[in-house]
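ok posting inputs for the heme C job
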Amino acid sequence: MQKLLIYPVVLILANPMMLPGQEQPVKPVTAVNVHVLGPQKLGNLSPVVVPPGNPQSSSKILLGKQLYFDTRLSLDNTISCATCHDPAMGWSDAGPTSTGISGQKGGRRSPPVSNAAYSQLQFWDGRAATLEDQAKGPIANPIEMGSTHDVMIRTVEDIPGYVEEFKKVFGTSTITIDMVADAIAAFERTVVTTDSPFDRYVRGDEEALTRMEKKGLEIFNGKGHCTLCHWGPYFSDGRFHNLGVAPTDPASPDEGRFVVTNDPADKGAFKTPTIRDVALRAPYMHNGSEKDLDAGIDLYNKGGRVKDANLDPLILPLSLTKKEKEALVSFMKRAMTSTNPEVSGVKPPSVSDLPK
Ligand code: HEC
Ligand code: HEC
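and the output
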């Protein structure tokens, strides 16, 4: 109840022109006037904030990259981070949910590693605070890489090339899981999007977006209310919402953020994902239940796919026309897709390039 009272106030504060139930007046967008509903403007990402405990260095980033792509970190040498977070698939996988060691299926979709450095919390339910914390999870997850930290460390210590590199980066030949996680996180902090047509548009290139994409951006900011949650340069509020996504198993739905907080208001709520490079990683949502962007927009237009007692009050039917939906999709497709070589052009190191 409290939530229901607060949200209309937030809506009004976010845009004084709008009253609940009224249609959002759409201002024309220009490169310098990227009009917003959320507390932070959409825009270019600032440089990644590097935590003081894990400074970047080129040798650490290279080591992290090798570990990221090395299947030897899994119990049976078949799975690396890149199996489920593949640069060629928008740093995600084919979905709808991920497949780990021995063909085991998880219940959730692989979120992108690209730009994850900007996420305040990691995982769909935000259960890891940092990239370093997050990186320790999959190695020892029985349905992901299926190993243990001890087994993985012994494997790495048996590869002289790695021992040498760890010594160079960390000054010791005693390898620990924290060092592995630090190196992988350092690499992940380089996988950043700064050069989508949207970014060029914000930097002042009016020609970077087509008319239709500009219309889509206008709807994203206006009638679609998308920026109420997908705001700021990272296109995410870092918060958790229940969108009425169709559960994979209605008999035992994924409880999302509730598992972390135990707050009933968080049941079925998941972290707002970024919209950057979104076209590269269909299907969508925490369980991959929406097969493409058209389907995703259809969910919003209907005010949720399923009726859920916990539906976020910001999710309301939108009455978007066919043209408006097309414009939104065109904005999210080409305009939000980056061409940064660090993101889209990363060539996985071949096995022969990995330490021996
Ligand atoms: C078997 C597939 C699989 C493997 C292997 C895997 N991941 Fe993931 N990853 C996932 C899935 C699925 C999630 C979401 C899980 C959740 O939210 O509960 C995830 C979440 C993440 C996130 C959080 C992103 C965000 O926005 O919340 C990061 C970062 C990440 N993985 C990095 C890695 C790294 C680094 C490795 C290797 C050490 C790795 N992953 C190995 C499937 C995988
Ligand atoms: C109330 C907050 C909120 C609003 C408003 C909102 N989103 Fe979302 N969006 C989310 C959350 C949370 C998810 C993930 C939900 C899940 O997986 O259960 C999401 C997921 C998505 C995805 C899937 C991305 C992926 O990587 O799987 C797309 C695309 C998307 N939103 C686009 C939009 C568009 C377009 C609008 C406006 C029409 C919009 N969103 C409005 C919070 C919101």
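notes: Residues 79, 81, 83-85, 98, 100, 106, 108, 110-111, 113, 116, 119, 122-125, 131, 134-135, 138-139, 144-145, 184 surround heme C (ligand 1) (CB under 6 Å). Residues 188 and 277 are 16 Å apart (CA to CA).
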